[in-house]
Every structure is written in C-alpha cells, then in structure tokens.
Design brief:
Largest sheet: none
Number of strands: 0
Helix content: 55-70%
Structural class: mainly alpha
Strand content: under 5%
Order of helices and strands: HHHH
Distance between the termini: 73 Å
Shape: rod-shaped
Radius of gyration: 29 Å
Length: about 80
C-alpha cells in the first residue's frame, strides 16, 4: 500500500503527515539511498576485472597458455 493510497482514504493520516511529516515517504527515500550506497560498496566488478587481467598476463614456466585454451601439451619457449 502506498502513501498516496493511505492519504486518500484516511483524514487522520493527513493530519499526522501535516503535524509530524510523512514517515513512510522518508523511510522509502532512506531505503533507496542506503540500497544505492550498499550496491556501490559491495561492487566487486573492478576486483574481478583486475584478476582476469592479471590472469591474462600471467607467466607460465611450462609454456602453457594461462587462459586454458591450449591442449595441455608443453611447448618449447622461444629462443
């Protein structure tokens, strides 16, 4: 049920909103703000991207591709 649905049906609620403020709207706004902040704080995409880039640049002492697309055979290193 939204705030507008409540206020059209109950004059007592309108009086309370006038006296004390619209607590439901304030709570909704705060919840959206906190949700956005939490999403930013918990965003690990940059860490995953950095790990993938490190993996692509990784050196393999056995001459194998670090991406896993080789057939598992050991290849001679270029001279």
């Amino acid at each position: 049920m939204s705030t507008s649905a409540i206020s059209t049906a109950t004059p007592i609620y309108d009086l309370l909103v006038q006296e004390r403020g619209d607590a439901l709207a304030e709570a909704r706004t705060a919840a959206h703000r906190i949700h956005d902040e939490a999403r930013q704080v918990l965003d690990w995409s940059s860490v995953r991207i950095a790990a993938a880039q490190r993996e692509e640049r990784a050196f393999s002492a056995f001459g194998r591709s670090s991406s896993g697309d080789d057939d598992g055979r050991v290849r001679a290193l270029p001279m």
